[in-house]
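Bug: token stream looks shifted between consecutive jobs. Job 1:
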Amino acid sequence: MPTLYLPSEEDIRRWIKQAIEEYLNDALTSTIPPKQTGDEQLLCRKEIAGILDISLVTLHDWMNRGLPCHKQRGRVYFIRSEVMDYVKANHRPASQGRTAA
């Protein structure tokens, strides 16, 4: 018959502490987005909306229409050059296409 090992309270505390430390180390390295990709900084929704001078509602609509964004753990980040390329390619100024009366 195999020997049954009963861990002491100290063993259980040590195991729990090790498990928590491992979890936190993994969580911190995977949830913190790299603030820079190459030479460009990742921007949050408010920052990119401010740069484009649009509301967050409009930004959300543009995201649904294909504005490049990067989602990490429920947060949305943008790379400025990708956004500017998208805007140049897909959004014309309001004055274009209108004719004078």
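Job 2, same session, no restart:
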Amino acid sequence: MRIVVVGTCGSGKTVLAQGLRRLGYEVRECHQEHSYVPYMWQVMSRPDVLIYLDSSTAVAHDRGTRHYVKGHAEEQRRRLAHARAHCDLYVMTDDLTESQVLQRAVEFLSTHYNDKLHSA
């Protein structure tokens, strides 16, 4: 089963993907927030499960994403709108630790995709 993680800069995509890989999941990050093609995540990644991570501009800035210019966060969300509309799991990461985000993803996967996980 292929899991794809999309989201805004600074939302924790890389950390979540690394954590899921350590647990044995097949996972890819899709940097949809940088693409003008709204459905790139579908074509390039062909996921069975799409996880969307989000963070506020202030939290992304605190996490080290300092390249924002006025309107950049809004532009990313516009580019990610298609993925958000089709995601299987949406997580606002502002008030969560990296471990809590991973735990939410694993709980979701085990609850909703348990049969697929064990038949692969």
